[in-house]
Design goal:
single chain; 279 residues; mainly alpha; 0% strand; globular
Length: 279
């Protein structure tokens, strides 16, 4: 995400609520209206494409009624969130400092960066045979897969955010006697924050998408396994309901975590810059 798009996003945050909600409501009306029309008039059997009202009723029942002999969708949601957060946290703990250090020291740690970039094109799903041998099916295997998926964008953005900083800032800091630790804490991290936040956002999204696929293959619980079991029972309404939950959870994190962190950090900086320019 470039500088101009970020500024426009923060400017949109100042717009009135009706101006933002109207196009969103129109888009949802078109989407659900088209879905309903396709299900009703295209001759597709309901067991292949149930209408939206049936899916929404199924979703409501899954969230509010516990069928005998089932775990309940809420437990699957909690299992998925726990695995996703554990793997994502590990990618942040390793990927952010490693990206900053490799970007700062450049040639001295070029070998580490090259190893990361050679491993990066390997599809995450290709790790499954090794993961099964190392961990066996279950939570540990899924958490490791999530960690791998989130690590790449987190590391890459931290690296690029460090490399893009002007060397003038670093030379001035060194001439003033700043230690390497002080340079990293006071210059590299704040200066590369737009890249860091973008890397965290991308890493979280990659981790969430990979989690569902991994749960289909490696888990006995979770949203991915819920979809897989529903597929085996030809319960398409439950499959779509699970997909809706996955999309909503991802959106809520995007909207109420990452957007607010950006608004509290980058947004305040841009507002101060605009105030200085006007003044």
């Amino acid at each position: 995400m470039n500088e101009t798009s970020r500024r426009s996003r923060f400017a949109l945050g100042k717009a009135g609520a009706p101006g933002r909600l109207l196009p969103v409501a129109a888009a949802f009306a078109w989407f659900f209206g088209g879905w309903w029309a396709l299900a009703e008039f295209a001759g597709i059997p309901p067991y292949l494409l149930p209408p939206p009202q049936q899916v929404l009723m199924t979703l409501y029942r899954l969230l509010t009624v516990l069928d005998p002999g089932t775990r309940g969708l809420w437990l699957d949601i909690l299992d998925s969130i726990g695995r996703q957060l554990a793997g994502f946290a590990g990618s942040v703990v390793l990927g952010v400092p490693l990206g900053i250090v490799c970007g700062y020291f450049g040639k001295a740690l070029l070998g580490i960066d090259r190893v990361v970039r050679i491993a990066y094109p390997i599809p995450t799903i290709a790790w499954i045979p090794l993961v099964l041998i190392w961990f066996g099916p279950g939570t540990s295997a899924i958490t490791f897969m999530v960690f791998i998926a989130a690590f790449w964008p987190t590391y890459m953005q931290a690296f690029e955010g460090t490399r893009q900083l002007s060397t003038r800032y670093l030379r001035v800091a060194r001439s003033l006697g700043a230690s390497r630790k002080a340079i990293i804490v006071a210059i590299l991290v704040p200066g590369g924050l737009p890249y860091l936040l973008n890397g965290l956002r991308l890493g979280y999204g990659e981790a969430w998408r990979l989690l569902v696929a991994a749960e289909m293959l490696l888990a006995t619980t979770g949203l991915g396994q819920h979809i897989q079991v529903s597929r085996s029972m030809l319960e398409v309404d439950k499959i779509i309901a699970g997909m809706i939950v996955i999309g909503l959870l991802g959106f809520l994190v995007e909207r109420f975590v990452f957007d607010r962190v950006e608004l509290a950090t980058l947004g305040s900086w841009y507002r101060r810059e605009e105030g200085a320019e006007i003044g």
